Amino acid sequence: MKELCVIFGGQSPEHNISRKSVTSVLNNLDKNKYNISVIGITKNGAWYLYTGDYGKIENGDWENDSDNKKKAILSPDAQDKAIIVFDEGRITKINPDVIFPVLHGEFGEDGTIQGLFELSGIPYVGMGVMASANGMDKTSSKIVFASAGIPQADWVVVNRTDNYEEKMDEIERKLGYPCFVKPARTGSSVGVGKAHDRSELKAALENAAKFDRKILVEENIDGHEVECAILGNEDPKAATVGEIMPTVEFYDFDAKYNDNSTKLQIPADLPNETIEKIREYAVKAFKSLDGAGLSRVDFFVKHSDGSVILNEINTLPGFTNISMYPKLWGAVGIEYSELLDRLIELAEKRVR
Question: Which of 308, 284, 258 is nearest to 20 (CA)?
Fold first, then answer.
C-alpha cells in the first residue's frame, strides 16, 4: 500500500474550510490503496498526528481528542523524507510516499508549506512554490495573466499604508462604481467587499486591510459567474464549465459555505463556443503560472456581449461535498475517489 500523508487545518482564515474539505477527502480515499497518516495544524500553528475519528475533524473536536493526537513535524531533511512523531518521550517516524495538503489560504496555498515539502524531498499534490505564491497573490497573478494575453477586469492596487483618499480618487476615475475590494492573498471570499459609493469603498478598504497589507480593487463585471476545473501537469486538461447562481448580490463567504440557496449549474447554460473559450483560457492561465496537479479557474461571461473575462485562479480549491472542483470532474465521468487517485499519481510523476 502507498503511504499517504494528508495535512489539514492551518493558520489562515480558511482553517474551518480546510476541515470541511479534508473530511470529504478522507472519507473518499480508497483505504485499500493507501495507508493514511493525518496531520492537523491548529490555528496557532501546532502540528499533530491525528489517529482518531474523522468525524471529529469538521467541527474541530479532534483538537480535544488527546488520546488520538501526538505532536509531529515534517522533517526538512531530504535524506529522512519523514514525518517525525513525538510519542511519550519516544521519537518515531512515518515515511510518506506522497503528501496531500488539503489547505487553503495563507501558509497552506501560498508557497510557504510547499517550500517545506520541497526541502523534505517528498512528492506532494498541487503546484510548486512559485506557482502557489503567484496564484495566491491576486495582484501577482494578474500581471502573469496579462503577460499571457488573457482578458481580465481592470484593477487598482492599494497598500495598507497608502493615502486612502488619493487612492479612492484613482479608483473612482479608473473603475467607477460598483467595484470589488479584495485582500490580495485570501481565498473563499474572506475580507471581500462590494462598494457602491465612496463611503462603502472606504469601509471595504479598511476591512480588507485587516486581512492583508495589499488590497486589490477591481471593476465590476456584469455577467455570469463561471468556473472551470483543471487537472494535470505538463499537459493539463480542462473539465466542463459550471455556473454559480447565488441568490445574494455577490458570491461571498456565507453564500459559498452557509447559504443553501446558491445554485450550481453544470454544465453552464452557455453557447458551446463560449464554454470552449473558457476551457482554453483556463488551461492557458494554469500553464502561465507553471501549474501542476490541480486548479479551479474562475471567469465572468459578460451579459452585454458574451465576452470572457478571467477573474482568478485557485490553486488548492475547496474539496467539500458541495465544492465546484470535484463536481465539475464528476460531470465528465471522473468521480471523487478516482479524482483523488489521479492527483496522487500526478504528484508522483511531477519532476522537481
Answer: 258
CATH number at residue 234: 3.30.470.20
- What single DSSP character describes residue 184? T
Strands 237-245 and 223-232: antiparallel
Q: In terms of domains, do 143 and 225 share one?
A: yes
| 313 and 323 together in one domain | yes
Q: Give percent of the chain with pLDDT exceeding 90.
A: 88
- Start-to-end CA distance of the chain, whole Å, equals 23
- Spatial separation of the C-alpha atoms in residues 213 and 197, rounded to whole Å: 22
Locate 38 and state its grid cell: 493525518
Residue 340: per-residue pLDDT: 98
Q: Give dist(CA 54, CA 325) in Å, integer.
A: 22
What is the domain extent for residue 24?
Answer: 2-124
- The set of long-range contacts for 175-181, using a CB threshold of 8 Å and a minimum separation of 24, is 175/217, 175/218, 175/219, 175/220, 176/219, 177/201, 177/220, 178/220, 179/217, 179/218, 179/219, 179/220, 180/217, 180/218, 180/219, 180/220, 180/250, 181/205, 181/207, 181/208, 181/215, 181/216, 181/217
Quick one: pLDDT band at residue 110, thresholds 50, 70, 90? Answer: very high
Rounded Cα distance between 109 and 190, Å, is: 14
pLDDT digits (tens, 9 = 90+) for 195-207: 999 999 999 999 9
The stretch 75-84 carries a mean pLDDT of 96
- For the chain, give the mean pLDDT: 94
Q: How far is CA 103 from the centre of its chain?
A: 8
pTM of the shown model: 0.92
The torsion of the CA quartet 123, 125, 129, 133, rounded to 10 degrees, works out to -170
Residue of 85, 61, 84, 24 lying closest to 318 (CA atoms): 24
